[in-house]
Amino acid sequence: ELIRKFVDQGATFIPTIQDSQIDPATIVELIDSLYKQILSKKVHFLLTLGLGSDGHTAGILPSSTSNVFSSRFNDDKLFVYYQTVPEETLNPHRKRFTISPSCIQKADEVIIFAAGAEKKPIIDHLFYSSEPAHSFPAGILRTISDKVTIYTDKE
Q1: Most distant CA pair in the chain: distance in Å?
Q2: Cα–Cα nearest to 95, from 27, 30, 16, 15
Q3: How much is the pTM?
Q4: Rounded Cα distance, 155 and 147, in Å
Q5: Whole-angstrom distance between the N-terminal and C-terminal Cα of the chain?
Q6: Which of 32, 65, 68, 155 would disulfide-bridge 79, Cβ 3.0–4.6 Å?
Q7: 3-state secondary structure string, 82-146?
Q8: From CA 98, how far away is CA 123, in angstroms rounded?
Q9: 40, 34 Cβ separation under 8 angstroms
Q10: C-beta of residue 27 within 8 angstroms of C-beta of residue 81
Q11: Exposure of 130 in the CB half-sphere (CA atoms within 13 A)
């Protein structure tokens, strides 16, 4: 019912691709191309994101070095696929298909949901730190802070 109302108002929903026979790089190219077509039109691009207790957002995990981060997110792609190694993160999800920092920066509006006591220091860090994106990916949001609204259950 809710989705139908959005569609009636002109919303576009992006289909997901769930075919394990397709190479992840191919999936990324397909989705990236589709999003670029959609964003080339006059649309309101709204992102809803979470905030991880390690400072990640949108599936963009902290990297061990700025070189590793740059090699993953160094171009104008809106979507990326990458794999992490155990030494890099405690996050158990090693294969990552996610939006890129470039995609976040193209958003017209970003809504962040951050629940739980462990998120309070991360929110503070977002506002009061200048830590680089490779070690604190949520810091990407600082570049578009006027477009970001954070909802949290903590003061």
Answers
A1: 47
A2: 27
A3: 0.80
A4: 20
A5: 34
A6: 32
A7: EECCCCCCCCCCCEEEEECHHHHHHCCEEEEEECCHHHHHHHHHHHHCCCCCCCCHHHHHHHHHH
A8: 21
A9: no
A10: yes
A11: 0
Nearest to 58 by CA among 82, 88, 87: 82
25, 81 Cβ separation under 8 angstroms: yes
Tell me the pLDDT tens digit for each residue of 54-104. Answer: 899 998 988 888 998 898 887 788 999 888 777 777 777 767 788 999 999
Number of helical (H) and strand (E) elements in the chain, helices listed first: 5, 5
∠ CA 106-109-114 to the nearest 5 degrees? 115
Q: Enter the tokens of residue 106.
A: 């193209």
Compute, in degrees rounded to 10, the torsion defined by CA atoms 67, 71, 72, 75. Answer: 120
